[in-house]
Design brief:
- One of its GO terms (molecular function) is transmembrane transporter activity.
- It is built from 20 helices and no strands.
- It has 442 residues and is mainly α.
- Helix 12 packs antiparallel against helix 17 and helix 13 runs parallel beside helix 18.
- The two termini are 38 Å apart.
Length: 442
C-alpha cells in the first residue's frame, strides 16, 4: 500500500504538467468572444491567434526529445514549469497583438515539453501491471486543467480586462508545479541508461519494494544493451520504422478527430446554434465536466479492457456522434437539447478512449534508448496536426459551413477505425522490455 501510494504521489506531481497543458490549450477558447473584437480579428487571424501556441509546442517537443535523453526527465520538467509560469503572466499583459502572439509561442514550448515528458516519465516509473492507469493520470490532469480553464473563464467573463486575467490565472498552478517537481526522483530507466545503477535501485525500491529490484534492473539493462542509439537516423531501421510511423499516425488522428475543435472553439460552435456569450461559456463547463468524468472511467478500463478495444470502440462511436452533430446543423435542430447531448456524448467517448489511450500507447511502444527521440517525433507531429486544426477550423467552418465540417470529421474517425483495426497493437499487461522485443521481431 505504501509503495502504491508513493507511485501515485510522484505520478500526480509529474502529471501536473498535464494540468497546465490542458489549462493553456483551453483558456484561449474563453477569450474568443472578447479578444476577437478587441483586436478586430478576421477568422484567419483568430485561427492564427489560437494556433500560434502550437508553433511553440512543435519547437518544445523537438528540443525536449534530445534534451531529456541527455539531461534526464526531471530537469526538463522543471524548465517546462518555469516557462508556464512566466508566459502566463506575460501573455495576459502583452502590450500589443504581436507580443501576445510571441508569448503564446513561448508558452507553447512549455506545453510541448510537458505533453511528452509527463507521460514518458510516468510510464518509466510505473510497474507494468498498473502502468496504463498511472499514465492515464496524465490525461486526468489534462482534463482537470481544461475544466479549470473553462470555469475560470466563466467567472471572469464580466470582469474588466477579462481576457487578460484569463491568461494570467495560469501562473498560480504553474508556480505550484515548479516547486513540487523538485520532490520527484529521476526516471530509473534513464539512470540505468547513463550508468547510475545504484541510484536507479534506490528509486525502484521506493516504487516497487525491495523484492523485485534486481530483476527490474536486469530487465532494464538487457533492454538498454540491446537497443540502438537515440538519433533521428535510428528511427529508420528494420523493426523501428513501422512502430514510429504507427506512433505518428495515432498522434495525428487523435488531433484531427474533431475533439479539439470542440475544446478550442466551442464558443463558435454554440454561437452558430444561437447561444449568447454566457451560455457558450457555460456549455464549455459542461464539456469540461463530462470530459473529466469519463476520463475517470477510462482510468478504470485501460488496464482491464486493453488499449486496442478502447481505441476501436472510440473511433467508431465518435464517427456516429459527429455525424449526428452535423445532422443537427443541417436540419437546424436547435430546439431542446439534441445538439448539446450529441456534443457531450462525443466528448464522453473521446475522453474514455482516444484521449488517454493514445498517450498510453505512445509512451509504451518505442524501444528504450530511442524512446525520448521517438516520443518527441510523434508528439511533434501531434502538434503539427493540432496547429493545422486550430488554425483551420474557424476558416473551415465558414468555408464549408457547420454540417459539412462535422460530416468531414465523422469520416476521419471512420477512416481511423479501419487503420486501428489493421495495425494497432495490444500492450496490455506487458513490460516495456517485453513489448519492444515483440515489436522489433515483428
Amino acid at each position: 500500500m505504501r509503495t502504491n501510494s508513493y507511485i501515485i504521489f510522484i505520478s500526480l506531481i509529474a502529471a501536473f504538467g498535464g494540468l497546465l497543458f490542458g489549462f493553456d490549450i483551453a483558456v484561449f477558447s474563453g477569450t474568443i468572444p472578447f479578444i476577437q473584437p478587441y483586436y478586430e480579428l478576421t477568422e484567419a487571424q483568430l485561427g492564427w491567434t489560437g494556433s500560434s501556441l502550437y508553433i511553440g509546442c512543435i519547437i518544445g517537443t523537438l528540443f525536449t526529445g534530445y534534451a531529456t535523453d541527455r539531461f534526464g526527465r526531471k530537469p526538463l520538467l522543471i524548465v517546462a514549469a518555469g516557462i508556464f509560469t512566466i508566459s502566463s503572466v506575460l501573455m495576459g499583459w502583452a502590450g500589443s497583438y504581436n507580443m501576445l502572439i510571441f508569448w503564446r509561442i513561448i508558452a507553447g514550448i512549455g506545453v510541448g515539453a510537458a505533453s511528452m515528458l509527463s507521460p514518458l516519465y510516468i510510464a518509466e516509473i510505473s510497474p507494468a501491471n498498473i502502468r496504463g492507469r498511472m499514465v492515464s493520470i496524465n490525461q486526468l490532469t489534462i482534463v482537470i486543467g481544461i475544466l479549470l480553464a473553462y470555469f475560470i473563464n466563466y467567472l471572469l467573463a464580466d470582469a474588466e480586462n477579462n481576457w487578460r486575467w484569463m491568461f494570467t490565472s495560469g501562473a498560480i498552478p504553474s508556480a505550484l508545479f515548479f516547486f513540487c517537481i523538485f520532490l520527484v526522483p529521476e526516471s530509473p530507466r534513464w539512470l540505468v541508461s547513463k550508468g547510475y545503477v545504484e541510484k536507479a535501485k534506490e528509486v525502484l525500491k521506493k516504487v516497487n519494494g525491495g523484492s523485485r529490484v534486481n530483476d527490474d534492473i536486469r530487465s532494464i539493462q538487457a533492454g538498454v544493451r540491446g537497443e540502438v542509439r537515440g538519433k533521428l537516423s535510428d528511427l529508420i531501421q528494420h523493426g523501428v520504422t513501422f512502430v514510429v510511423l504507427l506512433g505518428i499516425t495515432m498522434a495525428v488522428f487523435q488531433q484531427i478527430s474533431g475533439a479539439n475543435a470542440v475544446f478550442f472553439y466551442a464558443p463558435i460552435i454554440f454561437e452558430k446554434a444561437g447561444m449568447d456569450v454566457k451560455d457558450q461559456l457555460f456549455q464549455q463547463i459542461m464539456i469540461g465536466a463530462i470530459n473529466l468524468v469519463f476520463t475517470l472511467v477510462a482510468m478504470q478500463l485501460v488496464d482491464r479492457l486493453g488499449r486496442k478495444k478502447l481505441m476501436l470502440g472510440g473511433s467508431s462511436l465518435m464517427a456516429v456522434w459527429l455525424f449526428l452533430v452535423g445532422i443537427c446543423y443541417y436540419f437546424n435542430l436547435f430546439e431542446g437539447y439534441w445538439l448539446t447531448f450529441f456534443v457531450l456524448a462525443f466528448i464522453a467517448t473521446y475522453a474514455t478512449t482516444l484521449a488517454p489511450v493514445t498517450w498510453v500507447l505512445i509512451s509504451e511502444i518505442f524501444p528504450t534508448r530511442i524512446r525520448g527521440v521517438a516520443v518527441s517525433v510523434s508528439t511533434c507531429m501531434l502538434w503539427v496536426a493540432c496547429f493545422a486544426l486550430a488554425y483551420g477550423f474557424p476558416v473551415l467552418i465558414e468555408w464549408l459551413n457547420a454540417p459539412q465540417t462535422f460530416f468531414l470529421f465523422s469520416g476521419i474517425c471512420l477512416l481511423y477505425f479501419f487503420i486501428l483495426l489493421r495495425f494497432a497493437p495490444e500492450t496490455k499487461g506487458k513490460t516495456l522490455e517485453q513489448f519492444e522485443t515483440e515489436i522489433i521481431r515483428h
